[in-house]
Amino acid sequence: MLHTMSTTVEAASERSAAEVNEEIRALWRRSGGTLTTEQREVYQRLVMEWATAAPHSDTAA
């Protein structure tokens, strides 16, 4: 039986921030600029994944 959990922290380590960002952009293009409740949940998950994958600068002045 396949585990059908959607993308989680595991996927964040496998995909680059650029890849996740492109998925976010595609979601917005498909939605026509207005997200449904389900799309909003996907968007929020993608943003969290992107934040995990994005490089962080620890050199704040």
Mean pLDDT: 80
- The residue ranges in which pLDDT falls below 50 over 5 or more consecutive positions are 1-12
Distance between the termini: 51 Å
**How many strands, what sense, and barrel or not for the largest sheet?**
none
Structural class: mainly alpha
Determine Rg (CA atoms, Å). Answer: 13 Å
Give the CA-based shape: elongated
Helix/strand order, N-terminal first? HHH
Number of separate strands: 0
Percent strand equals under 5%
Number of helices: 3
Task: Please bin the fraction of helical residues.
Answer: 55-70%
Question: How would you concisely characterize the structure shown here?
Answer:
Helix content is 62%, strand content 0%. The chain has 61 residues and is an all-alpha fold.
Describe what you observe in this structure.
It is a single chain. With 61 residues, the protein is mostly helical. The chain is built from three helices and no strands. The chain has helices at residues 9-14, 17-31, 37-53.
